[in-house]
Amino acid sequence: ETKLDMTNEYEPNSIHGQGDQFFADKVAELSGNDVIITLHLGGALGFKSKDNLDAVADGVVPIADTLGGVLAGSDPIFLVSSLPFMAANVEEARELYLAAKPAYAAFFEKNGQILLYASPWPPSGLWAQKPVDTPSALSGLKMRTYDANGTRTLIEAGASPIQLSWADVVPQLATGGIEGVLTSAEGGVNAKFWEHLSHFTEINYALPLNFVHMNRDAFDDLDEAGRTAILEAAAAADARNWEALGARVEGNYASLKENGVVIAEEISPELQAHLGAAASAVIAEWRKKTGEAGEAILSSYGAKIGRNF
Amino acid sequence: MDAGVISLLVLLLLVAFLASGTVIFVAIICVCTVSLTVFLGFDVNRLGSTLSRIMIRASSSWELSAIPLFVWMGEIVFRTSLISRMFQGLTPLVSRLPGGLLHTNVVGCALFAAVSGSSAATTATVGKITLGELRSRGYDEGLAVGSLAGAGTLGLLIPPSIVMIIYGLLAEVSIVRLFAAGLIPGLLIAALYSAFILARCVSRPEKAPRGGESAPLSAALRNLWPIAVLIFAVLGSIYSGLATPSESAAIGVLVTLVLAALHGELSLRLLRDSLLGAVPTACMICTILTAAAFLSTTMGFMHIPQDVAAIIGGMGLSSGGLLLILALFYILLGLLLDGISITVMTLPITLPLVLAAGIDPIWFGVFLVIMVELGQMTPPVGFNLFILQGMSGVPVLRVAAASLPFFLLMCLSVVILALLPDIALWLPRWIFG
Amino acid sequence: MHKAIKALSHTANWLAVLALVAMFAHIVLEIVLRNFFDTSTFVLDEFVGYAVSALTFLALGEAFRSGALIQVTLVRDLLGARGKYFLDVFGHLAAFSMGILIAWYVGRSVLRNYERGTTSSSIAEVPQWIPELFVLLGVIIFALRVVESLIGLSQSGAHGETEV
Ligand code: NA
Ligand code: NA
């Protein structure tokens, strides 16, 4: 029997927490309880996403679930899933992931690890006290963003993004220190945003990815059956997570409606164009940084969804 | 070996290392390295990589910044006339009350708890301000230190509170409702503490000097305005949305510096002395917190909190029995672990049990925070004990003995809260419906 | 040697003071920017985090020397001179070995982050070896201070009272 620890900084009820639990259960089932994965959620082991790459490389923890954005500090290729308005829906996000997957896998291989699966975040939108569906509604809106690209894009778009730690978001909303938040419907459900905000505008800003990666030596140390169990469970978790996203968003929307949040599913064509233009600088900069590797992903992704980059 | 035996061994190891007189943060790290090597077979590479990663991560946390900043604020207050004026102002107000200035510990902590989200910051700041003054006026050291150890933990229960934010996010309950639910229980505990001091000093009058200075009320108010300005400025900055609770420490420093300037006491020398005084204290607290993070990582790798919580889950208890067992479980975990670790490690297992037993999650949040507060007062790892030894020079175990009555009073408050859950639940219902 | 350690340790302590002032200034700046200019430094929690860790470790050498790092003296107080000496040597060796263990692996991380060019993922893209270098320096100075104190301990021998 082999026992493996797995770390994830997100909560048990989050989409990634549940996906990882599914993976751990599947591994136990497929290996006939020969490989047991103990999941440490909510950062209970003391590691944040930004620690995971080194922690797994050094064999500190054999398996980790890591927010893609923090890996961008080691390789900008990881930003592709969080670039603004690259994928408009779950299907496109999945295609983008598949197009970039060889590059992701190669990165982990280079760092002594294997990529097991990736799971998407629900699409991020704008939480505010009003529908943010026109450029003028966005103008000057003081809101919390979650990454550097979001900050740059929203500055370009004329909003006033603010950086805050997630724990400070609710106190700031309660006291009116900020007027809005760029996050998914799910993020708003978890933190009960309806106590402070009335509208969620679906702009489908991005569907960022989390990556589940495993130490190469720990993997090789397993017997044939154990390795097969891990890989099959990973494939099953991958399929399950993408599959579950649609239901997840529906469930989140139902909670929002139950709590009186108005969901704006359409934004004006002007805002669409305005946001697209605001995002172009960020995307251009990313293409410059990643060069050929980035272009290869974009052209294969573009061919799949019929768009030209 | 099962979780119970291993945790007992870790506990014994920790007691031995601490008793050897090794610097506390080193002793904690040693226990972790020994435990990981012996129980889990970590080699030196895995050990060193884990240790260094946790040292870097745990020390570079934004939430931790409140500690050095509030410690600095305490040093400034301590080195200016702010402190003597505060005590001159308070003395005539409390001189006829048995216990006298000892009540400033309780009231000071309750007020300070309303601006700070952590108990370490509350204890260190109020301790810096009151302990020397109480000692020089001949107050009983045990009562002074014990009441601080107890009341300092209110930083977690009276909003804002870091542990409550983490509980709220994990349990998916409203953070503002949690904050509201903590207020009355916090005040109840403060009232119990003051009542205890009162009763103690009636039966043993030598514990607190009586009478002496009598001054008109107007003089008292004149002396108290600077400290009132400080408290209201920091509170106001949070509740107006100007600053987040994590930022309130910087506001505190800023207002203190302005007050010192208004009294003509702001000087390079004051800045230098207060900074040089604050840095070693902050270093002591932060290194111990960092070592404690490594201890919690070690316990996590050994699956101890999860395993024990799962055993409790298998017992099939009634809601009353469950609460009793959980209270014992959390008090035992509190011997070794800090509050945030306890919360994130056990909640995934205990919360479903609690919900299944029909216990209100908001009420359980308050219960859990009080459990965490109890852990701050218990050796071998009790942050308030460490901080108070650092502040007063009174050894950890003497501080622990002095805080025992306050520990028991807090346990009593949990019983009251279990019998009358509305003490916690009434205020959020009244505000938010 | 003794003078060099002292100078190093004092400098690090002043850097820790600087870190405290820097975190104060950064938070005040952030509050002003957010409330009066509707903008942000965008890196508050990241930079304040670096400052807290720099403060914590850079001050460690001086905090150790001045006795600010607390210890449980209950058992030590009960012992005679030989027993005290034995415990003190034990405590110093424990502190030294933990210091070296941390320094070695933090050093490895600093080197790796330098070679790989790892940055933070914020708008500032801070090379990660820089904040980790402060931790490394602090732990090395701490280990030096421990060695220095251990030498003093062995010179004063089993009979003298020792200052930790
Ligand atoms: Na508080
Ligand atoms: Na404790």
Automatic annotation (TrEMBL), chain B:
TRAP C4-dicarboxylate transport system permease DctM subunit domain boundaries: 12-422
Transmembrane segments: 6-39, 60-82, 102-131, 143-169, 175-199, 220-242, 248-268, 275-296, 308-337, 407-427
Annotated localization: Cell inner membrane
Keyword terms, alphabetized: Cell inner membrane, Cell membrane, Membrane, Plasmid, Transmembrane, Transmembrane helix, Transport
GO CC terms, sorted: plasma membrane
Membrane topology term: Multi-pass membrane protein
Keyword Membrane carried by entry: yes
Pfam families reported for this sequence: DctM
Predominant place of localization: membrane
InterPro entries: DctM (IPR010656), TRAP_DctM (IPR004681)
Domain of life: Bacteria
GO MF assignments: transmembrane transporter activity
Entry similarity comment: Belongs to the TRAP transporter large permease family.
Known function: Part of the tripartite ATP-independent periplasmic (TRAP) transport system.
Assembly and oligomerization: The complex comprises the extracytoplasmic solute receptor protein and the two transmembrane proteins.
Protein name, as recorded: TRAP transporter large permease protein
Organism of this sequence: Pseudosulfitobacter pseudonitzschiae
From TrEMBL, chain C:
Signal peptide: none
Keyword Membrane (UniProt): yes
Subcellular location: Cell inner membrane
One function term, GO molecular function aspect: transmembrane transporter activity
Pfam families: DctQ (PF04290)
Family: Belongs to the TRAP transporter small permease family.
Function, as annotated: Part of the tripartite ATP-independent periplasmic (TRAP) transport system.
Name recorded for this polypeptide: TRAP transporter small permease protein
